[in-house]
Design brief:
membrane, single chain, transmembrane helix, 2 strands, about 220 residues
């Protein structure tokens, strides 16, 4: 009987103590350890993993993406835009401005210079030379030719005509009026102051008529 009670008491006490100790130890230790381990490990791991993942992945991805995007944007867009704009501007400036300015300046200068030089040369040189040559030729040649021709014509023609006409008139008038009969060597004397004497012998001295030629001429 005593043994049984002792066993019962011992079992109860041991069971209670063991249960309490186990419960306390398990609850406290397990909870503490688990909580600590979970908190520490999980938090550390999560923080580390998250930080690492975030830092590494995000930074790498962001850096890569940003770098790629920036590089692409800078290289492609900027270079293309700059190249296009610069090329277009340069081409436009060079082609339009330079060509227009050069063409205008060259054309204007060439036209003005050529026109001025040509006009000056043509106007001054040609006009001077032409005027001088023409004036000289006209003055010299025309004057010489005119003078020579006029003098020759006047001298020859007039003198010949005058001589011929005068001689003919004198011969005819004298022969007809003074000695119409034309007796050989027997011309009659001029009448004093008559109109025949005015034609033949303007002196009109009495008896101053020339004798007629034989057969109608003047006396020898």
């Amino acid at each position: 009987m005593v043994g049984w009670l002792f066993d019962l008491v011992v079992n109860l006490v041991v069971g209670l103590v063991v249960n309490l100790v186990v419960d306390l130890v398990v609850d406290v230790v397990v909870n503490l350890v688990v909580n600590l381990v979970v908190d520490v490990v999980v938090n550390l791991l999560v923080d580390l993993v998250i930080n690492l993942v975030v830092d590494v992945v995000v930074n790498l991805v962001v850096n890569l993406v940003v770098n790629l995007v920036v590089d692409l944007v800078v290289d492609v867009v900027v270079n293309l835009v700059v190249d296009l704009v610069v090329n277009l501007v340069v081409d436009l400036v060079v082609d339009v401005v330079v060509n227009l300015v050069v063409n205008l300046v060259v054309n204007l200068v060439v036209d003005l210079v050529v026109n001025l030089v040509v006009d000056l040369v043509v106007d001054v040189v040609v006009n001077l030379v032409v005027n001088l040559v023409v004036n000289l030729v006209v003055d010299v040649v025309v004057n010489l030719v005119v003078d020579l021709v006029v003098n020759l014509v006047v001298d020859v023609v007039v003198n010949l005509l005058v001589d011929v006409v005068v001689n003919l008139v004198v011969d005819v008038v004298v022969n007809l009026l003074v000695d119409p009969g034309g007796q050989p060597g027997g011309g009659r004397g001029g009448r004093p102051g008559g109109w025949v004497n005015l034609l033949v012998d303007p002196g009109g001295q009495p008896g101053g008529g020339r004798g007629g030629r034989p057969g109608g001429g003047r006396g020898g």
